[in-house]
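Structure tokens please, single chain.
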Amino acid sequence: MALILIKTIIFLAATLLIITAVARILIVTTTSKYILNLDNQPEAQVALVLGAGLRRDGSPTAILKDRVQSAVELYRAGKVSKLLMSGDNSYIDYNEPGAMREYAISLGIPESDIVLDYAGRRTYDSCFRAKHIFGIKSAITVSQSFHIPRATYICRSVGIEATGFAANNIIYRKSSNLYWNIREIPAMLVAAIEVHITKPLPILGNTEYIFPEE
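Here you go.
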């Protein structure tokens, strides 16, 4: 009995590893041609800036500042006309989109060209809401290299013509990069399951189309 149980556990673990590897290969290979440098980025409606945490004082973390700085590069290069800041605002004293907006304004972006999504709690939520709440048809997803394939894959899977722009203005510690890349392995599996199988509905609400005339 014990031997059968051990074999079953080994089989299930091996199956999970294979499925996880397949999901990673699928996401990385299908998005590789859409992850572009600044010069090769096509014009899009918005830069979709994904939340990445706040410091205790409510200011953006270094990784989030990196994303905002990269979105500003896209804006200044004329690649996008709006910045869609999507992050978590679950608590009154935790406001990722607001912190991103203030930082972008400090970098010279007009407040009128910044749109906030307060319910972008996860990458899937941010992409889904960009499409269905804000009416986005084309976007440049902005995140770090470890995350950008998944973000771009999800956004394309929900119907956005998306490319990816890696925010790599900062040299991060090797330990941080290792942690983030390991975390992406199960996250990619979850992403594949959500966009192809479960298709969950995030927090929605009234539509707020950014480009209603298009």
